[in-house]
């Protein structure tokens, strides 16, 4: 006859071992809220450090941007009377290409503005978009104002030709039709001295 | 030889004390709750799941879930039953997933080495025919739907009364009884019913 009676547990061995309990406890202890709290604190500390580091980096970049514009090798930007073709690589990533016979003179460089005079000759400006400075290029017959673009200026004694390859520029001057003209990529404008016979 | 000194601990902390300590993040309270109830839970889940590793994972998850709910626990005096309910729910979820995966053919039956069935835990002095009866019960339980298997095992293996089975299964007493009766009908031969049992 069958000896088995309910509950069957009474006729079974205990499946629980101390080793199994220790394994389970280790698993619980590793994931307990206290450890989680400690892990969360570590994560928070790391996040704070990351924020401080990125803020420091941002500040360094900002300080570099608000300093006067310099050449990419750190030398100050001075007037250039180019006897041969020259390229001025600037520390904000912009480049100025000067043709032979060009006289280019920076007159103001601050955190927000860079002003230069193209006394004569031909230059191509590749201004880094999104930069902190407003660029103003005085070309005698007109002033070219840019934010981030690539444009070309050729100045002779009685003429100025501005052509834009990328972005937008604003050309201002007495000799400019309506005193101001907006040029976009592909546009060009020739400004002639008023007393010059066309 | 020196005789060991027996230290009596007449005022062992109650579950309610331990819960309030654990809820405040006291590791000792957590560990004592674990030591007090983990063996019981691991025994039940090992028999329910017939898989030692899965049972350990369920007990670990049970305690982690319990620790999260400690601050809002109301039934502080019946922690064991409350933890058992969580463990049974988690075990049922596992069994249900495995049952569906087996039905879909995506999961093979457990390998022999992983078995932790009733027959494996049979008491050493059990007669061979009783062992054979347990093996037949194991076969029936392996094919049974998870809800029925759990209800039957809680009642017939663990010795829960009908209300406790219903509470642990999250169903009404009538549903619990129906589930138990379904398996009883299949098991009637191998195991003699205890006189006066439902």
Q: What descriptive keywords fit this protein?
A:
heterodimer, A: 198 residues, alpha+beta, twelve-stranded mixed beta sheet, 2 helices, 12 strands, 24% helix, B: 198 residues, mainly alpha, 8 helices, 0% strand
Q: Which class do the helix and strand fractions of chain B yield?
A: mainly alpha
Number of strands of chain B: 0
Global Rg of chain B: 19 Å
- Give the number of helices of chain A: 2
- Low-confidence segments of chain B, ≥5 residues, pLDDT <50? none
Biggest interface in this structure?
A: A-B, 28 and 44 residues
Radius of gyration of chain A, rounded?
Answer: 35 Å
Question: What is the helix content of chain B?
Answer: 55-70%
| Number of alpha- plus pi-helical segments of chain B | 8
Give the SSE string of chain A. HHEEEEEEEEEEEE
Mean pLDDT of chain B: 84
Sheet of most strands of chain B: none
Quick one: overall form of chain A?
A: rod-shaped
Helix content of chain A: 10-25%
Derived from helix and strand composition plus strand pairing, the structural class of chain A reads alpha+beta
Percent strand of chain B equals under 5%
**Distance linking N and C termini of chain A:** 128 Å
Shape of chain B: globular
Strand content of chain A: 35-45%
Q: Please give the largest β-sheet of chain A.
A: 12 strands, mixed
Any overview of this molecule?
- The complex is a heterodimer of chains A (198) and B (198).
- Chain A has 198 residues and is of the alpha+beta class.
- Helix content of chain A is 24%, strand content 36%.
- Chain A is built from 2 helices and 12 strands.
- Chain A has helices spanning 18-30, 33-66; strands at 80-82, 86-89, 95-98, 102-109, 113-126, 134-138, 143-146, 150-155, 159-166, 168-172, 180-184, 188-192.
- In chain A, strands 1, 2, 3, 4, 5, 6, 7, 8, 9, 10, 11 and 12 form a 12-stranded mixed beta sheet that branches.
- The longest helix of chain A is centred in the N-terminal third of the chain and has 34 residues, at 33-66.
- Chain B is mostly helical and 198 residues long.
- Chain B is 64% helix and 0% strand.
- Chain B has 8 helices and no strands.
- In chain B, helix 3 packs across helix 4 (79-103), helix 4 (79-103) crosses helix 7 (162-169) and helix 6 (146-157) crosses helix 8.
- Chain B is globular, with a radius of gyration of 19 Å.
- The relative contact order of chain B is 0.10.
- Chains A and B meet through helix 1 and helix 2 of A and helix 2, helix 3, helix 5 and helix 6 of B.
